[in-house]
Amino acid sequence: MPPETMTPRPAAADIPAHVAAFVTDLTVRTKLPLNYSISSLKLVDRVVDGMRTGTAHREQVTGTLFSLGAYAGEVLVRQFNAQWVDLAPEHRALFGQPVGIRMPDTRLWNPVGKVFNRFDSGPPESLHTLYLTLHGRTRLDP
User: For the chain, what are the domain ranges?
Assistant: First the structure.
């Protein structure tokens, strides 16, 4: 991956458009089947694992990690009627991110931070596992 420059992160209202552009670009370049399914979260885990075993340093791939986390969040938004929210200062400090998703049961989740954690720590931090831990989920998707 080419080195990235630090760009401002989108606000909650801008995340769906950001993710759509990212998915379009990535699927054209790599043919990765990012289709907003729960099973595509396993693919995100594998992509992040590939990035961490390569020669990339975290600061070189920050934008891509953010976009992969935003994609994971958008999967949850679409599958479970969650909402993107701009986080309050105390949640920003806790999550280390400016945005999160609010599930219908009002819980906040941090898929963007989960991607960064996966890059830093490896397989114990999984987007697919995050899905499995969601309280009140009713859909089953392998």
Answer: 12-133
